[in-house]
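By convention, each integer encodes one residue's backbone shape. The lines below illustrate.
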Amino acid sequence: MVNSLLENINNPTDLRKLTPQQLKVLAKELRKYIITVIATKEGHLGASLGVVELTIALHYIFDTPNDLLVWDVGHQAYAHKILTERKNQFYTNRQLGGISGFPKRSESIYDAFGVGHSSTSISAALGMAIASNLKGDTKKQHIAIIGDASIASGMAFEALNHAGVSKANLLIILNDNAIGIDPSVGALKQYLTKVKKDKKSVNNNIISALNFDYSGPIDGHDIDKLLSELNRLKNITGPKFLHIITTKGKGLRQAEENQVVYHAPGKFNPKTGDIIPKTISNYTKYQDVFGKTLVELAKQNDKITAITPAMLSGSSLTYMMDAFPNRTFDVGIAEQHAVTLAAGMATQGLIPFCTIYSTFIQRAYDQIIHDVALQNLPVVFCLDRAGLVGQDGATHHGVFDLAFLRCIPNLIVFAPRNEIALRNILYTAQLGLQQPIAIRYPRGKGVLSNWQLPFNKIEIGKGICLQKGKKLAILSIGTIANNVTEAIEQSNKSVEIGHYDMQFVKPLDTKLLTHIFKNYSTLITIEDGVTKGGFGSAILEFAAKNNYKNKIELMGIRDTFIEQGTVEELQKICQLDAASIKNKIDELLLL
């Protein structure tokens, strides 16, 4: 940044000293800085490159942080962070102890609202605007920046419906680039495409019909137009809506041409844009095991369908879409709809595999209870990214699913220890289960080089003894079992230790548990989820019900939110790594 404009800008006050012509130079410098840092540190690249001019214009025209900016999802907030006193910390983005990859209220006064999941910006900004009205502050500005994929979500429509009849001083900016992580889908996307081509229809569009002062669409990379329009809208009261057209990945050729890959490309060459190849692994990602297995099963069973809320590539349902496009449904960012859509299919004899990240299934909790479990419909929930997911941090860790799912009647809850167990439970789920099942599996690679073996049916509610012992029994659920195995191998008292993969959080294998409680004086339960109400709690409930007095130690995520870091770093912090488990084993065997 030698002799650059960006070098001398630490906050929006510095930014506002520049001329409009200098802002265009700044945009180029800001893009280069983002590319340079993300090339080595990794992160969400394309979305932030697409809103560089918009970010500059917003902080130039509005009096931030007094005026409030709410970024939807937060993938596009890197330029915002750099311009708001975090330029020198940006290299720590998404790293352990560094700044968050998403806007976060505790991190900066410029982050008006914490985000990570989509479609929350309009509701939050409207709430802020209503609060300003009640305080008599009519000059404060409230701006929500939302993408064309996020605005299709039900929550965003609910907020638009309310905002349109309010007197709130609210500006909604639609960042329309025709893509979220995957290309946007649905009728609204088709409508926005039509509006972009036929600007004569702007006065009769959906947004205008909801009582918004609509303007656009305008070029979101033209700073002069942005400054002019934002300055005009700043002086208009009531709900306003600005439609801008941007290019995701703007300024990096490969990111523009391959927007799905360059959403979060990993490490790449900052000069050429070419992705740096990763070391070839002998192991397959769990989502690929899922995606390939589902296609294999779908070839044998024409009742199988697949549903995802805008996570087609992330969930590896691209395999299913390629093989069976008529039986694969990307419903957009609409988790609630995805679940009830699956319920409707199940009533008609289909076998829907509803595939949603663990952290996003939280958004459809009522539908799981009311539309699926209450009616005992055999929907197969495939919860990708379960457990600690790494550098996306607190908004994305899938650590609550075991706790909030196991309390739901009729719902089977299963966590595979490895890829073969995942394959076999997927096979079992389509053999005619008469109730819903949730299968949760982690992000990242598995542990087996050869997992494509013939299918075997899994007995529902059946645990597995991995190793017999004498004094101490470890009960694990899911892939955390691999850390347990490593810890036992490191212990010089391994013969004293029994290890049991319980497989099912619900129903529990009560026969196996009875055996364990009668043969071991001490038990450890281990899960990569919260201990409050989770797997360990289920074991404590079993012990209390049957009046067992064994010593039981719970290991898992404690009652706190876990921030960003690599999975290995976070497991160590949460004492779920092999070394921490070994220490706990040694401690308990000394008692």
About this structure: DSSP finds 23 helices and 17 strands in the chain. The longest strand covers residues 522-530. The chain has a mean pLDDT of 93.
